[in-house]
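Long-time lurker, first post.

We've been arguing in lab meeting about whether coenzyme A would sit comfortably in this protein at all. Half the group thinks yes, half thinks no, and nobody has a model to point at. So I'm putting the question to the forum: if I give you the sequence and the SMILES, can you give me back a predicted structure of the complex? Inputs are below. Any interpretation is welcome too.
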Amino acid sequence: MQNLIISTERLQITTFDITMANSVHLNSLEEDIRMFVPDEVFETEQEAKDTITFLIESYKNTKGPFVYPILLKTGENIGYVQAVPIDDEWEVGYHIAKKYTSKGYASEALKHFIPYIMDKLGINQIWGICRSDNIASIKVLGKCAFKLVYAGIGDYRGNNHQICKYLYKV
Ligand SMILES: CC(C)(COP(=O)(O)OP(=O)(O)OC[C@H]1O[C@@H](n2cnc3c(N)ncnc32)[C@H](O)[C@@H]1OP(=O)(O)O)[C@@H](O)C(=O)NCCC(=O)NCCS
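Top reply:
Settle the argument with this. Predicted structure of the protein with coenzyme A, as tokens:
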């Protein structure tokens, strides 16, 4: 049984269960994921299963990462939203499967997720960090009231890239 954590106009944000392994595997194989979040590609369903098992365990601790699937109201798994620890702070992340992009789903999910996760973590600011050429992601952060605090060369998932660092504060 999934635990619904947030219901929005068009979406449900829930906790993972192992039956989602196939959709997580398939959603992860897309070109945008390979380019912008290569460490979140699961080449096999078993890899997705192992990761989901780890993420379900992580719900029980305070260290995270905290990753939640985004479902349409019909139940289809279209992506995820997450908070991951960076040093002593937290960073948001998100993915929407290609065929569902440009419909406002990532922004809708993130707008509702931010207050939920900041309250759960007891924090008053959270980062959004992306490559400077990830225009869709930059638009999502802008629509969710993140403010640009750095643009330039920086570490992005282990490599140097032109990046943008955005911060959301309450
Ligand atoms: C980034 C991502 C989550 C956006 O999801 P989404 O549901 O399409 O987001 P939204 O519809 O809320 O907003 C995206 C905006 O960017 C625009 N957009 C989408 N793809 C674009 C592209 N390739 N180039 C330029 N603009 C693009 C959309 O039209 C929309 O514009 P609008 O605000 O004027 O309507 C999705 O593209 C994705 O999963 N990408 C791969 C993973 C990723 O990069 N995650 C973020 C890592 S920092």
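For your lab meeting: Residues 4-169 form a domain with the Aminopeptidase fold (CATH 3.40.630.30). The two ends are 33 Å apart (CA to CA). Whichever side wins, do check it experimentally.
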